[in-house]
Amino acid sequence: MENPKTPKLENQICFPLYVIAKEITGLYRPFLDELDITYPQYLVMMILWESDGLTVTHIGEKLFLDSGTLTPLLKRLESKGLIIRKRKKEDERVVEVFLNEAGRKLRHKACEIPGKIQQKIDIQPEELLQLKETVLKILNKIEK
């Protein structure tokens, strides 16, 4: 006999959120393969395209990643020739991350990706905006 207190997968909000995140990330893969970067690397690059010269700590805060996860990711971007990491002269414990020329040029190719993803998803922009706002509302409540 089924226990009525047993959680059912179909009743959980976490499962469809997990699946949609995984599936949407998968949609990015072919476009990011053309740029020779992974999805997490793409997220870092977007942050730097918006505001170059951020500290590793600041990037980690924006992406909800700790330095143990972020540092290897940044090392790979640096080995690909897209960024430069520099220690601050005033405090060598602080590492700043800067785009180099190749990293700045990559932005032009990446600008096409959001439109391509929206075409693949085939949903109205208003619906996507509403979904984003709802997810951000939940995220803000979790963070408090």
Write the layout of secondary structure elements.
Layout: H1 14-35, H2 39-50, E1 54-55, H3 56-63, H4 67-79, E2 83-87, E3 95-99, H5 101-110, H6 113-121, H7 125-143
Antiparallel strand pairs: 1-3, 2-3
Describe the structure.
- With 144 residues, the chain is mainly α.
- The protein has one domain: Winged helix-like DNA-binding domain superfamily/Winged helix DNA-binding domain (Arc Repressor Mutant, subunit A, Orthogonal Bundle), CATH 1.10.10.10.
- The chain is built from seven helices and three strands.
- Strands 1-3-2 form a three-stranded antiparallel sheet.
- β2 and β3 form a beta hairpin.
- α1 crosses α6.
- It is globular and about 60 Å long.
- The model has no long low-confidence stretch (mean pLDDT 94).
**Main sheet, how many strands, which sense, barrel?**
3 strands, antiparallel
- Name the helicity range: 55-70%
CATH architecture: Orthogonal Bundle
Figure out the total of helices.
7
The dominant shape is globular
Q: What percent strand?
A: 5-15%
How widely separated are the two ends?
Answer: 39 Å
Structural class of the helices, strands and pairings? mainly alpha
Write the element-wise H/E pattern from the N-terminal end onward: HHEHHEEHHH
Low-confidence stretches: none
Secondary structure tally: strands: 3
State the name of the first-level CATH class. Answer: Mainly Alpha
